[in-house]
Amino acid sequence: MQNNTFSGLFIGRNLITLKEVDSTNTFLKNALSKSTPLFDGTVIMAESQLAGRGQSGNSWLSEAGKNLTFSILLNPNFLAIDRQFDLNMAISLAMNDFLNKYTAGGAIIKWPNDCYIGNKKIGGILIENIVHGNIIKHAIIGIGLNVNQEDFPAGLKNVTSLKQALHQDYNLVHLLGEICSIIEARYLQLKAENADKLRDEYLSQLYLKDEWALFRFENQIQSGKIRGITAIGQLILETTEGLRYFNNKEIEFIN
Ligand code: BTN
């Protein structure tokens, strides 16, 4: 389906809506591997994902027709692979901008890219890069946002939706259009500037930054204070034994 209603320059101009798919990220990845020509900024949106994928090999569960599950194809050939976290910051900030608009500033980013309202997760981001040489040739930006879902499986703790938080139903395609414009603005900022300003903003929006909190690492619950993020996206944690650096799967937040 071609789309002419989104207001941005390129993200979402080509919108493909699928009733059912395994995963919108996998769909885009397969299309690219078959050299299917796709415009930069193509968006694949699904009403239902049969095998939605989340971070760290987890699945992403979303009630059919109630939420946004979509992937954006970007060709950030200005970005070397060692700057992939800069793209993560731009997309996380864009989702945070969008959520702040709806929640009067109540949104926050949980490192590395969870979308939170208060202390509950409302959305997640899965970025998969296809690299040529040391350049990111394609980035598949997969986003799941809980919108109109009211009930969640009992095993899913600390999750929410716009409907749960704001007691309203939302038009999914309208929200998608807004998100695409906001992502485009942050992406163009990343392209035009060095990432320092994005990094400062990302840090200012980071959940538990500069607060003592509990984390699990090295099989123990220990307290620490988030002090920053390295250029490659490692979490810098102040502990009683000094500064420690963690990759994504090496540390868990204890709520
Ligand atoms: C997370 O674990 O927080 C990331 C979740 C990302 C889910 C989205 S839904 C659309 C896209 N397709 C997928 O299979 N995953 C991402």
Counted by DSSP, the helix tally is: 5
Judged by helices, strands and strand pairing, the structural class is: alpha+beta
- Overall strand count: 12
User: What's the main sheet like?
Assistant: 7 strands, mixed
Radius of gyration: 18 Å
Named CATH topology of the largest domain:
BirA Bifunctional Protein, domain 2
CATH architect. name of the largest domain? 2-Layer Sandwich
Say which molecules are bound, naming each kind only once.
biotin
Roughly what percent helix? 25-40%
Low-confidence stretches: none
Neighbour order of strands in the largest sheet: 1-2-3-7-6-5-4
The CATH C-level name of the largest domain is Alpha Beta
Q: What's the N-to-C terminus distance?
A: 42 Å
* Domain module count: 2
Shape: globular
Strand-residue proportion: 25-35%
**H/E element string?**
EHEEHEEEEHHHEEEEE
CATH homologous superfamily classification of the largest domain: Bira Bifunctional Protein, Domain 2
* pLDDT averaged residue by residue: 95
Give a nutshell description of this structure.
This protein has 255 residues and is an alpha+beta fold. The protein is built from five helices and twelve strands.
Describe this structure in words.
The chain is built from 5 helices and 12 strands. It has 255 residues and is of the alpha+beta class. The protein folds into 2 domains: 2-204, BirA Bifunctional Protein, domain 2 (2-Layer Sandwich), CATH 3.30.930; 212-253, Roll (SH3 type barrels), CATH 2.30.30. A 7-stranded mixed sheet has the order 1-2-3-7-6-5-4, sandwiched between helices. A 5-stranded antiparallel sheet has the order 11-10-9-8-12, with no helix packed on it. A hairpin with a 2-residue loop joins strand 8 and strand 9 (220-229). Helix 2 (84-103) crosses helix 4 (172-192) and helix 2 (84-103) packs across helix 5. The termini are far apart. Biotin binds at residues 23-25, 49, 52-55, 58, 60, 69-71, 114, 124-126, 142-144.
